[in-house]
Structure formats: structure tokens, C-alpha cells
Amino acid sequence: MSTVPIESLLHHSHLRQNSKIYRGTRSFFIPCSLNLPSHFTSNKLLHSIRTSVGASSKHRRSVAIRASSPDTAVVETAQSDDVIFKENFPVQRIEKAEGKIYVRLKQVKENNWELSVGSSIPGKWILHWGVSYVGDTGSEWDQPPEDMRPPGSIAIKDYAIETPLKKLSEGDSFFEVAINLNLDSSVAALNFVLKDEETGAWYQHKGRDFKVPLVDDVPDNGNLIGAKKGFGAIGQLANIPLEQDKSSGEVQKKSESSSDSTKERKGLQEFYEEMPISKRVADDNSVSVTARKCSETSKNIVSIETDLPGDVTVHWGVCKNGSKKWEIPSEPYPEDTSLFKNKALRTRLQRKDDGSGSFGLFSLDGKLEGLCFVLKLNENTWLNYRGEDFYVPFLTSSSSVVETEATEAAQVSKHSKKTDKEVSASGFTDEIITEIRNLANDIHSHKNQKTNVKEVHENILQEIEKLAAEAYSIFRSTTPSFSEESILEAEAEKPDIKISSGTGSGFEILCQGFNWESNKSGRWYLELQEKADELASLGFTVLWLPPPTESVSPEGYMPKDLYNLNSRYGTIDELKDTVKKFHKVGIKVLGDAVLNHRCAHFKNQNGVWNLFGGRLNWDDRAIVADDPHFQGRGNKSSGDNFHAAPNIDHSQDFVRKDIKEWLCWMMEEVGYDGWRLDFVRGFWGGYVKDYMDASKPYFAVGEYWDSLSYTYGEMDYNQDAHRQRIVDWINATSGAAGAFDVTTKGILHTALQKCEYWRLSDPKGKPPGVVGWWPSRAVTFIENHDTGSTQGHWRFPEGKEMQGYAYILTHPGTPAVFFDHIFSDYHPEIAALLSLRNRQKLHCRSEVNIDKSERDVYAAIIDEKVAMKIGPGHYEPPNGSKNWSVAVEGRDYKVWETS
Amino acid sequence: MEVSVIGNPQARICRAELAYRELGFRFGSDVISGESRNRVSFCNQSSKWKEIAIRCSSRSVKCEAIVSDDAHPFLNSAPKSKSLESVKLFVGLPLDTVSDCNNVNHLKAITAGLKALKLLGVEGIELPIFWGVVEKEAAGRYEWSGYLAVAEIVKKVGLKLHASLSFHGSKHPEIGLPDWVAKIGEAESGIYFTDRYGQQYKDCLSFAVDDVPVLHGKTPMEVYRGFCDSFKSAFSDYMGNTITGITLGLGPDGELKYPSHQHNAKLSGAGEFQCYDKHMLSALKGYAESTGNPLWGLGGPHDAPAYDQQPNSSSFFSDGGSWESQYGDFFLSWYSSLLTSHADRVLSVASSAFSGIEVPLCGKLPLLHQWHKLRSRPSELTAGFYSSNGQDRYEAIAEIFAKNSCRMMIPGMDLSDEHQSPESLSSPESLVAHIKTSCKKQGVVVSGQNSSTPVPGGFERIVENLKDENVGIDLFTYQRMGALFFSPEHFHAFTVFVRNLSQFELSSDDHATEVEAETVSIGSGTGAPSLQTA
């Protein structure tokens, strides 16, 4: 029985061994029309500057000649010209080659088909491709089977193949690659994109991969090729079915006689499709612009020259009044200038005599602020500079003065600030601090001024704040996912005795009442009953029992029939007795509810285990759709997937209704008071809120366990992201459940093991775990049945357990003690700490003041009545009005209390 | 719920935070590093903070000394310009205020929130009213009870109400078109906008069916008219006193545009033309034939990029691309003319429906600021904003608004250029300025709105926009109430913003402001030198 779901998993993993989400290249698709030089080497740059310098002197000579031409603007050149602007703009000219890509599917014989992909434009064409297998969901690619790969193919990662296209024949401009398809394989579709290694451009189909379906039910995302439906866009693609009539008849016949694997392929038809492509080839050129101010005429003379071949037209305008809007200057204009739509001027540049480019001169009024232009090479080719117009700023006589002044002023002030700082560096900071204080008081309450008005004012503000806070809390409870706000609440929380499912009374201490081996005896409930009195006298208030349902695994975490409560831990009656017994001694009991996944009873027609039996006889609609192993038909999972069993789709109303009913039944029937929720990473916390609202537990805690962050194997000091994820989950439950403080456990590990006790204070001087942010919802622990016991997935540093307990049993949060530790040599020490916590009435919202967090010692004072230190270093609580006496003491830890 | 304990400590934290913000602005980053250890705030506060400091200082280099100018919105220290005082501030209610079944959602929260806003001095509330909620069941069966209940609360609290009649659906929260319309849409193709992949946009009817009797023999315009009439009579008691404005939904998201951007990616592409429904295509065909180019009427541009592709990835929008060609002018003129005439139709229907009631009407434009720096302005083209012969594309629209004596709502007033990702070649500031100018030329009154999610520096930018003497904005709607809006951090910033619009109800506050000004000016004296070198 228990091996069955695993078997089905293995079956699939064999098929999908190499599968991996196809993510690499897709994000790198670069549009093939970049008109900016994103990469030119520094050598090239130097070169082009050199040329342009050389060219400009040549060009000045020719200016003198042109200047005498009577019908053009007179260009003055005087020796005293000041060069006010000089720039060499690199530009890229793009030449466009047009052609087509074609895709042809044709039948060679029987089940052998051939797919050819070709291009009519020369280039270093590579087909980047992969396949989808029957039953795959999502957009993942897999590597094709070996026999499909044409010679010369290279495997890219484990999801794709690259095959170069070859020239069909010498002298032919077509490039092509052909892939043999054997329809007996389980390939459902072929995916590809075409890559031109010359330009690095990728060619896709409608923004997605090309997809050639080989079976009927390939989901159409608009990128199918050769699908009967054809293409949405009108006139975009030529769709020329070849010999359609003949082939379809033939294929029809064949598929009828063929084996099962091709049953779904009856729609396969030969096709030939082509689509136009254009390839752009970029040439690097440069435009150099020099602007000079002619001192005699106070005109600005701009020379533009470029090494662009062919006719170059400058499309230009001038700027006035500080705007970069194009305006038409007054005449005269340079030679070969025309007016364009009253918006701009067009001047054709003169070809240089040596044919190496062209140049032009523009003489403009001295009062103008600048010249804007773009270059036009032909009707379809325009060049600009990095997406913007070229802009040549002129210095007007007034602006230059202003600018100089400004610079001077800036220099002066820089200087004076520096002196300021030197003279009174300390005074300065003091003053700032005072300012902050004043302002903080000032913003809302102008105290000491007109007291009456201020009081009214203050009252109204308080009222506003109260109302806003009320609105906030209600809105928030109906809106999922929040992050930081909760932290505020944490800081604002005050102790109260109100019972809430997230906190219980606030004074709870948990006992985990089992370990990984507890199922072995078959009578764990009975064994535990015998300990009830002892656990109560130790001071525990809540007991966490193992998962009670029928389970595929003996420990209970692979539940099957949720209404069958006979398990390896005992019968349902023994369970009920146990709960009664603990209630008698005043201990509440939590049931371990596994809601994320459930093992199936039956196989579906495909042989996949995804049909449930028992009272909750769900079908595959109850299973999330994104775990391919179980062919769920539900929605996508709202969390992570647990891969060994079907993950339940909590977004289904019927599922939620059934779960709520079940939880209520467990409460009623067994007498549970609350829940420990297994693997809550697997589904959205909002559903948990729903379940908590329905079952109204006294206390609930979720297991949200993921990895802390490490850099080069060393744990990061800042684990805010980790605890944020847990806080987010609690938030999603609207605080209806607490969560195990995995962050604190992780940080304790490193702090204790490596003697790095400084880790135990976050930058704000608060505990670094969840307990520092949302103490009332943090269930602190150092070990459980997974991390420790006989599994030891993440065992607390051995021998240092008591330091861990000295920490969690004195700190806020709700501490949980592991069964193995209670009944070990640590028993007396744990008992002493438990008794201290109860005696001093420490609770989940107690206030911690961290007194010391150094390399070898961490010390804190809790609620001003308990002091503690862990670590080998020395610490004594401060001598003051309080009278500290040692309460518990052990290896590397010490706890004091006020008497 | 642990409500009552939240109030005070939270507010104190915010106050402290505000003080930092002001000082940071004036003293640069020295303060931050010195003080951050003592700050009681959240984990990512410091980074956000730094942004503000940098932003301000960079501007101070550009402009004159800001401190002495008293221009900074958070320095409540100078006599404010007149224009700010005249701005009426509205706050939007959540989109799902009234549920499908005409219940008022979060009733308690809204009531508390409205009281808070009233005390704060907010003028009124914007209420989105969905066609799909009111006329849900059957044509002509209107159910106003939910919205009437909200109007009553608003009236009781003493706020004004701006009703937004929404003829579109919404994705988040999910509110569709009326069920009976959706049924028609399923049975008959072509009433929705459709893109070239044949995907329908089911949250708004296509402009091409405006005057086609597709809704049980009635045209959408007739149905909208019926809706307006019903609204008018249902809310007659509130008209003019509580209800002081009505916005007409002009298209997807209530904005006058084609649904060209349907994927809400951070950096979206150019968008796609939505002219592939049956009616659009036949209109295009007719137009092409009438202009003597029948071949141009066979479909939309073949070389336009896909939704999430960059505009330059194909030739339509590139410089010298099809958009500039004769064909481009043909297509874009036609495409935008449908948009303009749709605006005209809806606004005339509304102005005749609401004639005789002294409530100003309003229509909303989109702010298509992405790719604004490209010559082709692809986002505007795909959304339907184009004008041939170099005429101003917004002026034509403004003219229609003027004709129907309608105000224009411009969103995105909180967006500033420097917070846009440079790759998007976006410029919200210049686009807002452009639209404002077009309105001014046509004598259209402009109202403002922010974008729906808070952006860094948003409040400062809004104040700058409202202070613009050039085009007076007398009404600003802040979007939108909800958990985020009332979250301590945001609500506090909002409070400060309101105070800066000098709408704080306490008139006795005036005197105190002066006192406060004194304190602050001492601070600014110290701050000035460091600012200039910041």
C-alpha cells in the first residue's frame, strides 16, 4: 500500500530526469534593431576621434571656398573663433535584409516524418530547440531523444539542443536543417527558436517559441505552427498547405491502423509555412560636431561631418528659451535646405571630395540656445543619438556669465561648508539631534503654545489616528498579504489575557508529545497518558499530539483517509481517552493536521494515483495542477509543492468545505483544542484563516520551514528576509495562527556552535528571529521530530541544548519543548526554567532588553524581572534598585530573577 | 482583533520618522548614518529614506536653494500659494465597496475611514459605481441599494460624493460586465475589443459597437443612457448637495483608451492595436475602400510588435517606420477617430441625461507615459491617441470635452520622471504638462488623480502639479482607500500631504503655523550651507 504513490512518482521521474524549467535564453532575447552602439572597443573610439580631428581640419579649408558662394548663407570664419562645443557621436547604421523563414512538416513514410526549418537570408543560423513530451504541462522544454538529433547537434544545458542550419547547396542562398521525427516516441510537440549567431538575434514566433504540435491536444498559446486553426493575424503569414487533400486522407488511414501511441496524432498534417523576417546589420560610423562662436558676428557656427556613406540629410531645428522644442530659425539657411512640414529644416550634407563621407556648415544666430538634429539616410533610415535627438548647446553671452557665477558660488559654499564642519563638527551633530527632537514634537503637537487650542488639536489628531487604525485593521483582515505593517502591531502589542487562536492565553508553554519513533510501539497514546500528571506538574499548558489519521507512512505525515483515526499511535478510542486524560490535568491538546497533501486510494485511467476514497472521495479536481506527477485538475498551487503525494488544491470550494467539516469533526469527536499545521508553505495562509475561523481553535501553530540565508557557507547576520517570509504567512492567516520560529532556531545554531553570540541581537537591538518582530505569534523551539530525534535533519548543537532552552524559556514568544529533551538528563534544568517562566508570569509578549551581545556572551533582561545570559563570557545583571538572585544555572548559562 | 492598542505608539513612531525625513532633506546623508541606530522603524526604512534624500539634493543642484524658497511640501513653514488652498481633495473608495450582491463590503472600515478623512479635512469621496453590479441580472433591471447605502453614509459623515459610473469591468477585484451582457458576448462574437491573436478583452465593449444594436436590440449608447437616467432618479435626493461630480467611464479602466496594454508588466511593451473584432474590421474595410485604398482595410498593421515586445523590435514604430508612412497615417487616423467619436458619444449621452442638474461631468484620460521619448510614442498610438499633420493629439480630445462642457481627469500626477526606469523612455511629467496645456487651450477644467499604487516621492510630485499656476487644478482625487491607505506609514504621509494642501479643518491652527514656522526657519538656517553642496 505504502509504496504505491512513490512508484508512480518514480515512473515519471524516469521520463523527466533531464527536465528543467526552460528559463535561460528567453529573457535575453534582444530585439534585432538596436540602433545604438552598445559595444565598441576603446580602440575603435580612439580611432574615430583621431579621424574626426584629422577630417575637421581638412574640412575647414573647404569652408573658405564655400563661403563665397553668393546664394547660400554667409559663413564667417575668423581666427578668434572660440570652440564652444565639440563632440564625436558614435552612431550605428542599420542595414536591413529581408527574407523569410520557412517551416515544413512532411511525411517520409509511415510514422517517419521530417520537419525542416530554413531561412533565405545568409547568416550563421542555429536552430535552438527542444521537445515536449506527452503529458507535460507548462512551457518546459526537454531534450529530444538521441535518435532525433541531427548530426552536429550540441546539447545546451539539459533542456535544449542547438543544431546549425546548412546551405542547401553551393550557390543556393537557402539554409536549412531537417529533423527526423519518429511518431512512435512520446514527443508531443517540438519547440524552437531560430538564432543568428552573426548578429546574436533570436527569431521567435509571435513573441514566443515556435511550437509544432505532433498530437492534437497541445495547448494553443497562439504560437502553434501548422495547427489547423491557422494564424490570427491577417495577411501576416503565407499559409500554403501542400498536398493537403492527399496527405490528410493518407494520414487518417495510417493512424487508424497504427498503435496506441499515435492514436492522438490523427490530426497531423503536412504543412509548409513561411514568414517574413528582416535581419539588420549594423555598421559603426560617427558624427562629429563642432560649434564655434564667431566673436565678430556673434554667430554660432556649427559644422557637422560624418563618415556615413551615401546621401545624408540633416533634419534640424533650433532651440530657444530653455526648451528643447524644435523651432525654425530665421533665414538664411545653408545650401540645399528645405522646410519640412513647418516643423523642421532639412539640409543635405555635401559629399566630401574623397568620397569618405559628407559634411555641412550651419551658421546660426548667436542668441539661440542650441541646435537639435537627427540624420536621415533614406526614407526609412533615421539616426539619432541613443534614442534622443542630437543636441548641440550654444553658450549665449548671458548664460555663460550666469554659469560662471554659479560655479563660483558653488565653490565658495563648498568651501564654507567644509570650514563649518571642521570648526564645529561635534556641535553640529548635537544640534541636529536637538532639531530632530524639536521637530518630532512640533509636527503634530505645538506644545506649550496656546494650550487650549493645542489640546483640541491633539484630541482630534488622536481621534483621526484611532479611526484610521480601526479602518486599517478591518481592511487588513480582508486583504491578503502584508509585510511590514505587522511589525508595527508587534511593537504596539500589549499583554492581555484575551484568548486568540494565534496565542492562546499568551502564557502557553508547549510540549511536543512524540518523536519520530513514537509509532513503533503501537500504543503511544497509552504510554503518553501515563505521563500526563508529570507534564502538568512541570508547567506545560499545551500538548502537541502526532498526526492521528490513517497514513501511508507510519509516522502519520502521509495521510490517506482523514476520517479513519486508527493509526500506529493507537486507536481512535485510545486517542479520545488520552485527550480526556490531559484535559483532566489542565493541558490543552493540539492535533497535528496535515492539510497540504493527501495520498490517493485509486489510480485514474492513466494509472496515476489521484483518486481519493473514504468519506472524502475527491477526484483529481482536488489536486493542484502544477505538480505534473499527479495530473491534478485543480488550480495552480498557492504555495510550494510537497512532491511525494498529491498536493491538495485549497482554492476549490468543495475542498475547503470538506476540510472545515473535518476539522470541526475532529474537535467534536476527539476533543482537540487546536492545531499544529503541517507544511503550511504549501498553500496560502488565507485558507488557514478560513479553517481557523471555522474550527475556532484555542491555539494553532503552523510549520513554515524554509532555509535561512547563507553566503559562502556562512550564515548571514541579517535574516530579515527569512523571518519576513514567516511573518508574511502569519499575516496571511490574519494572525489566526502562530508559526514555529525557525529563524531563531537557525541563528541559535550558529551563535552557539561558533561562539558568535553577537548574532542574537538584530541591528535594532531586538531578537533577530520572528520573536523580535511578532513575538505573540512566534512559537520558539530548538528541536522537533524532524530536526532531531532519529531523523536529525537539522539537529541543535549537541550539548548546548540547555543554552537554547535558557533562551526560549525566558524570552517572549510561546516556547515549545521537545519530548526527548524533557525525558533526558536535562529534566531537572528544564523543570527549573519552566517553573521560573510560570512563576514570573513571562508571556508571549514580554519585553526583552538586550543588555549584552558580544562574541562570547549574550545577556538580556525580560520584563525587568528576569535576567539571563548564555555563552561562556561573563555577565552580571546591573546592580540597581533591583535585587537579583540566581534562579537557574548550568553549563554556559545563568538565569536570575528579582525577588 | 487587537485594534485599540494600535493607535498611539504607532503614531509616535511615524512622527519620529517624519522628522527624519525633513532633516534628511536638509542635512544630507550625514544625519542618516549618525542616527540610524536609534531609529525605531522598519527594516527597509533606511533605503527608502535615502531615496528621498538623494532626490531632494539632486534637485537642489538644479534649482535654486529650496529651503529658503519654502517650497518643500513637508516644510509647513511659509504662507502657501493661493492655488493650493482652492484644491478640493477627494479620496477614492475601494473598487469593491459594493459587492456583486449589493452588499456594502467593509462597512465598518469605510465608516471609520470616512470619519477620519472628514476630521482631516478631506472634501469628499469618490465612489466607483459598476455597471456590472447595478444592472447585473437583466437589461433595465437596476439595483442601486448598495450604492445608495454608501451615499447615505457619506452624506451623514458630511462629505461630498463624486460618482464614477463605470461601464467597464475590473480584474482586481474581479468585477465583470453585467451577466446578461457577458452572455451576449459568449453567444455573439465581436462585441468586445479583440487583438490580432483573436483574444477578446471582456472588460469593456468595443468602440465599434457604440451605435450597433447588439444588446437585445439596443445600442450600448442607449443602454448607457438608461443607466444614467436611472442613476439620476435613484440619487435625485443627493444630486447637487452630496453628489458634486459625476465621472463617465470612457473605456477600459474607465479611461479613454483602447485596452492596448493588458499585461501589467513593470516595463511593458508598446501595446497592441485592438482592431480585430468583427465590427472594427468591417469599419476599417469600409473606410479603406472609401479612401481608395481597399487593400489597407484587410487588417491592422502587420509589423507592429507584440504586447511585451519593445517598440523597436519591429518596424512599425521605429523611426521612419510604418507609423510615419501614408499607410500609418491612414490607419492611425481611423483608429484614433473611433476613440474620439466614442468619447463624444458617451459625453453627449451623459450631458443630455444630466442636463438640468448642476453637477459637473468629468471624463478620464490615461497617462500613457511609457515610450514618450520615442518619436512615434507607441503607447499613445496603440491606445488610440494620434493626430495627423502634426496637430496636437490631445487638443482634439480636449475639444470634445469642451463641447460637452466636461472636465478632464488626468491620472498619474504623482509620477515623476526620475523614478521611471530609464529603459522605458518614459516621461510622465512632460506628458501631464502637455495634456494640461491642451486642456487650457480648449478651456477644459482639469482634475487630477494619482496612479493607483504609491510611488516614491509621489506626494511631493502631486503638490508640485497642483501648484502649477499655469493650469489651475481645483479637484484632486487620491486613489484609493484600503488596507494600504490606512496603514500607519502611508496614512501618516497622507496626513502630512493634506496639511500641506492647507485644508486642515482647525482654523485656529493658523496661529500655530506661524509659531511653527519660526522653529523651522531656525532649522533651515542651519541647513542651507550643506544643501548647496549636496
Automatic annotation (TrEMBL), chain A:
Record domain Alpha-amylase C-terminal beta-sheet: where: 838-898
SMART domains: Aamy, Alpha-amyl_C2
Keyword Kinase attached: no
GO biological process: carbohydrate metabolic process
Alphabetized Gene3D superfamilies for the sequence: Glycosidases (3.20.20.80), Golgi alpha-mannosidase II (2.60.40.1180)
Record GO terms (molecular function): alpha-amylase activity; calcium ion binding
Record-annotated Glycosyl hydrolase family 13 catalytic domain positions: 508-837
KW Nucleus (keyword) present: no
Signal sequence range: none
Coiled coil: none
Sequence similarity: Belongs to the glycosyl hydrolase 13 family.
Protein name, per record: alpha-amylase
Lineage of source species: Eukaryota, Viridiplantae, Streptophyta, Embryophyta, Tracheophyta
Residue numbers spanned by region Disordered: 243-266
Species the sequence originates in: Arabidopsis arenosa
Reactions it catalyzes: Endohydrolysis of (1->4)-alpha-D-glucosidic linkages in polysaccharides containing three or more (1->4)-alpha-linked D-glucose units
Automatic annotation (TrEMBL), chain B:
Keyword annotations of the record: Carbohydrate metabolism, Glycosidase, Hydrolase, Polysaccharide degradation
Molecular-function GO term, any one: beta-amylase activity
UniProt cross-references to SUPFAM superfamilies, sorted A to Z: (Trans)glycosidases
Cross-referenced InterPro entries: GH, Glyco_hydro_14
EC number: 3.2.1.2
An annotated GO BP: polysaccharide catabolic process
Class of enzymatic activity (EC top level): hydrolase
Signal peptide boundaries: none
Catalysed reaction, written as an equation: Hydrolysis of (1->4)-alpha-D-glucosidic linkages in polysaccharides so as to remove successive maltose units from the non-reducing ends of the chains
PANTHER family in UniProt: BETA-AMYLASE 1, CHLOROPLASTIC, INACTIVE BETA-AMYLASE 9
Family: Belongs to the glycosyl hydrolase 14 family.
Protein name, UniProt field: Beta-amylase
